[in-house]
């Protein structure tokens, strides 16, 4: 056992061959030195041309991308960015308040049910109370009629419009997208959501906005049909956090991050376990490989050319 | 050496006892491993988890 530990600790020295010697051996077997001058010239030219063509294609591709005048959102230091950092659940809870009181007026969230809130931002009783605030059309009953009932935990978030056409008709032809997976569906993720919500400004000279459009540099094209929704003190938080516009945007972006990636925290828990398990297995594999290769690495092959 | 040979005779000699040992040690190993992973996660994310906001209420 002690010898085994000693061999592992000695580490790099174990069964190591000299790399310099190996390189010389390989070099001695190389056949490139026997190539004719013409062949060498041809191969060098082909290599240079292929490299040049690749570089040209890369440069052309980059130049096309550079012509795209899109303002990319700056990276914000989210408390959940990081390999094992969980979502800030009090922020998720506040973000739900913002969604419910501001965003939900126009945006649906059809893939999130009230039961999903339990254990994430709300207790079971709180989630039941949230669900009961809305009325759902259910049925048919025994007479074949649809009826209204208060929401239950299993109900999904209500849709502000009956269908897409109704949503477009109410919003100058623009369709407010469903927000369930919006963080995953937009370049820049939660940074984009935050920048978009806080980035409204006057349109620069030369940009013409149509009726019902607003200017936002983070929105591709600049002309967005959603008016600025978040202002200071537009709502009051349950937990007394000062409701500045940037706080509202940060909280709702965190909430939307959760709705887009409900498995976020479990995924990061899993990473800790996987890293622990695989680092153990890596050590075992390394030792086992050296152990099994001992015979091959210490073998010497003698080559005797025929006289 | 005495310990080694008793260990060998009691456990490693027979597949049945060896498998039993593997299953029993899996139980303890997995429990410890999961708990320690969870405690790392909790200590890194102190104050941000749902358990933390639940206490406040």
Q: What is the compact description of this entry?
A:
Chain A has ten helices and four strands; from the N terminus they run αααααββαααββαα. Chain A has 307 residues and is mainly alpha-helical. In chain A, the strands form two sheets. Chain A has a two-stranded antiparallel ribbon. A two-stranded antiparallel sheet of chain A has the order 3-4.
Stretches with pLDDT under 50, minimum 5 residues of chain A: none
Mean pLDDT of chain B comes to 91
Give the beta-strand count of chain A.
4
In terms of per-residue confidence, which ranges of chain B show pLDDT below 50 for 5 or more consecutive residues? Answer: none
Oligomer: heterodimer
Shape of chain B: rod-shaped
Provide the helix percentage of chain B. Answer: over 70%
Strand order across the largest sheet of chain A: 1-2
What is the global morphology of chain A? elongated
Second-tier CATH architecture of the domain at 65-112 and 156-288 in chain A: Orthogonal Bundle
Helix content of chain A: 40-55%
Report mean pLDDT of chain A, rounded to a whole number.
90
Question: What distance separates the N and C termini of chain B?
Answer: 60 Å
Strand content of chain A: under 5%
- Round the Cα radius of gyration of chain A to an integer and report it: 32 Å
Stated plainly, the CATH topology of the domain at 65-112 and 156-288 in chain A is called Cytochrome Bc1 Complex, Chain D, domain 2
Q: Largest sheet of chain A at a glance?
A: 2 strands, antiparallel
Class computed from helices, strands and strand pairing of chain B? mainly alpha
Number of DSSP E strands of chain B: 0
Q: DSSP strand (E) fraction of chain B? A: under 5%
């Amino acid at each position: 056992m002690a010898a085994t530990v000693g061999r592992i600790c000695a580490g790099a020295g174990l069964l190591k061959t000299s790399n310099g010697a190996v390189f010389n051996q390989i070099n001695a077997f190389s056949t490139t030195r026997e190539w004719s001058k013409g062949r060498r010239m041809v191969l060098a030219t082909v290599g240079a041309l292929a490299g040049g063509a690749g570089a040209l294609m890369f440069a052309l591709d980059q130049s096309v991308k550079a012509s795209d005048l899109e303002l990319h959102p700056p990276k914000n230091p989210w408390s959940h960015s990081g390999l094992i950092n969980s979502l800030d659940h009090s922020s998720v809870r506040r973000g739900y308040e913002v969604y419910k009181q501001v965003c939900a007026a126009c945006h649906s969230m059809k893939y999130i049910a009230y039961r999903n809130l339990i254990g994430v931002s709300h207790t079971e009783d709180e989630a039941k109370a949230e669900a009961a605030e809305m009325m759902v059309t259910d049925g048919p009953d025994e007479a074949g009629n649809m009826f209204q009932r208060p929401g239950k935990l299993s109900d999904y978030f209500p849709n502000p419009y009956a269908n897409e056409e109704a949503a477009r008709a109410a919003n100058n032809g623009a369709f407010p997208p469903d927000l369930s997976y919006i963080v995953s569906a937009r370049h820049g993720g939660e940074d984009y959501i935050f920048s978009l919500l806080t980035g409204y400004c006057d349109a620069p000279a030369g940009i013409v906005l149509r009726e019902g459009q607003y200017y936002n540099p983070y929105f591709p094209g600049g002309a967005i049909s959603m008016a600025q929704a978040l202002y200071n003190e537009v709502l009051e938080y349950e937990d007394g956090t000062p409701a500045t516009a940037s706080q509202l945007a940060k909280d709702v972006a965190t909430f939307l991050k959760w709705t887009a990636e409900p498995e976020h925290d479990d995924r990061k828990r899993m990473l800790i376990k996987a890293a622990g398990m695989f680092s153990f297995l890596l050590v075992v594999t390394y030792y086992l490989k050296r152990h099994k290769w001992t015979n091959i690495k210490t073998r010497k092959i003698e080559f005797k050319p025929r006289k | 050496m005495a310990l080694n040979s008793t260990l060998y005779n009691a456990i490693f000699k027979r597949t049945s006892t060896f498998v039993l040992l593997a299953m029993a040690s899996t139980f303890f190993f997995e429990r410890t491993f999961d708990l320690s992973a969870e405690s790392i996660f909790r200590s890194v994310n102190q104050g941000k988890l749902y358990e933390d906001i639940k206490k406040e209420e």
